[in-house]
Write a structure and sequence with these properties.
- The strands form two sheets. A six-stranded mixed beta sheet has the order 2-1-3-6-5-7.
- The protein is of the alpha/beta class.
- It has helices at 19-50, 54-57, 83-100, 122-133, 156-161, 163-169, 216-225, 228-231, 238-249, 251-254, 294-314, and strands spanning 70-73, 103-105, 139-143, 147-149, 196-200, 205-213, 257-259, 267-268, 283-285.
- It is globular and about 90 Å long.
- It has a single domain (70-314), classed as Spore Coat Polysaccharide Biosynthesis Protein SpsA, Chain A (Alpha-Beta Complex).
- Helix 3 runs parallel beside helix 11 and helix 4 runs antiparallel to helix 7.
- It is built from eleven helices and nine strands.
- The longest helix is centred in the N-terminal third of the chain and has 32 residues, at 19-50.
- Keywords: Glycosyltransferase, Transferase.
- GO terms for molecular function: alpha-1,6-mannosyltransferase activity.
- It comes from Podospora fimiseda.
- InterPro entries: Glyco_trans_34, Nucleotide-diphossugar_trans.
Length: 315
């Protein structure tokens, strides 16, 4: 006889292995897991007890000694300006620095690879370089090459950077980009909180003369400002518009910035864009003179050369 389907198997097939064998195998697996977990626990305890303390793993930031108290940084473009003009610029900074125990730093524009960005970006990388070169300085004052220090009697510490003085000078709840930017300087800022000091002109922030306090924040700020993405944005005013952008979008930078009156740090030789220089002001800049050609900058500077030399010789 033939069946259409094979006969059904028994509905209760015999177990694969005796129950006692399965229990023993399960106990062995559980014991192995327990031993592994216990071993990992003891390894973790030993690591926690023997690892280096946090003070060794992350050394505290370097605290500047104040030697020198201030470094004046001016990037010079030897390919554009003649030697006599740049020598006069350097002489001006050196005489002022010697009077107050400061140092000067004159890096060349050609020292840095800006990756085809405008030369004006040099100020940012030059300041970053200066922080490395003078790790014990308290403050760094960047002053463009188209400028003179005019009042040798004014010390940066007393004139601007002392905490109590900064609290008198800083503009609080003030539009970052005039006249009506919705982003404003903090109203509760104290002098001790300020690590970055600059001015405005009639068009916005003016980045040709500014002060940075040495420290970890300064390094973070300059790295942020010099980020390749901002150099690639092709801002109309290059690093100045990049600065306005990051200040308005990064509260960590806005929270450390103070805007002061222009004539305290950054007077202009002409009044068409900002506050014009007056006798007694700390410095004068020949703003945008290069747009009219190199000779225009040198001609503009001659109006002030004898005046600053006279002021220095009588101080």
């Amino acid at each position: 006889m033939h069946y259409a389907y094979p006969p059904r198997k028994a509905s209760h097939p015999p177990p694969y292995a005796p129950r006692s064998s399965r229990n023993i195998a399960g106990l062995r697996r559980n014991r192995t897991k327990l031993l592994a977990i216990t071993g990992l626990f003891f390894i973790a305890v030993i690591w926690l007890l023997t690892r280096p303390s946090s003070s060794h793993a992350a050394p505290s930031p370097h605290k500047p000694s104040g030697n020198p108290p201030v470094v004046i940084v001016t990037a010079v473009d030897e390919a554009t300006y003649d030697k006599d003009y740049l020598d006069t610029i350097k002489e001006n900074r050196i005489k002022y620095a010697e009077k107050h125990g400061y140092k000067t730093f004159f890096p060349k524009v050609s020292d840095y690879d800006l990756k085809n960005a405008p030369k004006s970006w040099t100020k940012v990388v030059a300041m970053r370089h200066a922080l490395t070169k003078f790790p014990d300085a308290y403050f760094f004052w960047y002053l463009d090459q188209n400028a003179f220090i005019m009042n040798p009697r004014l010390k940066i510490e007393d004139h601007i950077t002392k905490n109590s003085r900064l609290e008198e000078l800083m503009k609080k709840d003030h539009p970052v980009v005039p006249p009506d930017s919705i982003i404003k300087t903090f109203s509760h800022l104290k002098g001790q909180d300020v690590d970055f000091v600059l001015t405005q002109d009639s068009e916005g922030l003016s980045a040709g003369s500014f002060i940075v306090r040495n420290g970890e924040w300064a390094r973070f700020f300059l790295e942020t400002w010099f980020d390749p993405i901002y150099r690639s944005y092709n801002f109309q005013k290059a690093e100045t518009h990049a600065l306005e952008h990051i200040i308005q979008w990064h509260p960590t930078i806005l929270a450390r910035m103070a805007i002061i009156d222009q004539r305290l740090l950054n007077s202009y030789s002409q009044h068409n864009k900002g506050d014009e220089y007056r006798d007694g002001d700390l410095a004068v800049r020949f703003v945008d003179c290069l747009a009219a050609g190199v000779q225009a900058c040198q001609t503009e500077s001659q109006k002030f050369t004898q005046k600053w030399r006279t002021a220095f010789s009588s101080s």
